[in-house]
């Protein structure tokens, strides 16, 4: 039987290192409802009042860091960003382990899910505490994904990830340690120009 865990001191890791190659312009800096997608995600993260809120940058580093330099965030640059998302996950986890040893879990976010709100993040934390599961992920499109909260017992598994992959493989491999919450709008993210057009249509 899997032992229940409880996350007492969670941090937030916001992944913002992608190149947006398919889109051709940094999706982190697309403006929606008065804020860039990155700034929206950062403000939602800060609203949860967890510390630290770590933003992992990579491609387009100067433009991205300049756009959020006024916010109380901890910025960490991933020089290996070209490998893909796994490298940013590893960078964020290693940074927490080395600099915040009292952190016993982390909420992992990406910056191209415009429908993420603070209530969703609160629900992740509440569900983790209610279930004792080491991982609680958002469920959409029939899969588990971000945002998600992971107990530090899963950090070493995150450090084994490689390539342009997130934690979905981890969720699938450890279903006995996973709980999910519904986030139907989570399937809407920004990868292509068509996605941007759909995003802009939401404003009208």
Question: Can you describe what's shown?
Answer:
The chain has 204 residues and is α/β, with parallel strands linked by helices. It has one domain: Spore Coat Polysaccharide Biosynthesis Protein SpsA, Chain A (Alpha-Beta Complex). It is built from seven helices and nine strands; from the N terminus they run βββαβαβαβαββααβα. The chain has helices at 37-47, 61-67, 85-99, 118-131, 155-158, 168-173, 193-201; strands spanning 10-16, 31-32, 35-36, 53-57, 74-77, 105-110, 135-140, 143-151, 178-182. The strands form two sheets. A seven-stranded mixed beta sheet has the order 5-4-1-6-8-7-9, sandwiched between helices. Strands 2-3 form a two-stranded antiparallel sheet. A hairpin with a 2-residue loop joins strand 7 (135-140) and strand 8. The chain is globular, with a radius of gyration of 16 Å. The chain starts with 9 loop residues before the first strand and ends with a helix. The relative contact order is 0.19. The model has no long low-confidence stretch (mean pLDDT 91).
Helix content: 25-40%
CATH architecture: Alpha-Beta Complex
Order of helices and strands: EEEHEHEHEHEEHHEH
The structure class reads alpha/beta
> Per DSSP, what share of the residues sits in E-state strands of 2 or more residues?
15-25%
Runs with pLDDT <50, length 5+? none
Main β-sheet, spatial strand arrangement: 5-4-1-6-8-7-9
Q: Please report the first level of CATH classification, the CATH class.
A: Alpha Beta
């Amino acid at each position: 039987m899997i032992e229940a865990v409880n996350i007492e001191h969670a941090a937030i890791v916001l992944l913002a290192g992608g190149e947006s190659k398919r889109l051709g312009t940094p999706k982190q800096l697309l403006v929606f409802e008065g804020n860039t997608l990155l700034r929206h995600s950062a403000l939602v993260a800060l609203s949860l009042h967890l510390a630290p809120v770590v933003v992992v940058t990579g491609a387009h580093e100067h433009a991205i860091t300049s756009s959020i330099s006024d916010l109380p965030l901890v910025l960490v640059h991933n020089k290996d960003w070209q490998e893909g998302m796994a490298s940013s996950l590893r960078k964020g986890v290693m940074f927490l382990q080395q600099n915040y040893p009292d952190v016993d879990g982390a909420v992992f976010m990406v910056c191209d899910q415009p429908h993420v709100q603070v209530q969703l993040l609160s629900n992740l934390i509440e569900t983790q505490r209610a279930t004792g599961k080491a991982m609680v992920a958002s469920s959409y499109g029939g899969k588990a994904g971000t945002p998600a909260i992971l107990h530090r017992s899963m950090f070493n598994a995150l450090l084994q990830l490689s390539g342009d992959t997130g934690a979905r493989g981890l969720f699938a491999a450890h279903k006995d340690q996973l709980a999910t919450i519904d986030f139907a709008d989570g399937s809407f993210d920004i990868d292509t120009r068509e996605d941007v057009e759909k995003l802009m249509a939401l404003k009208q």
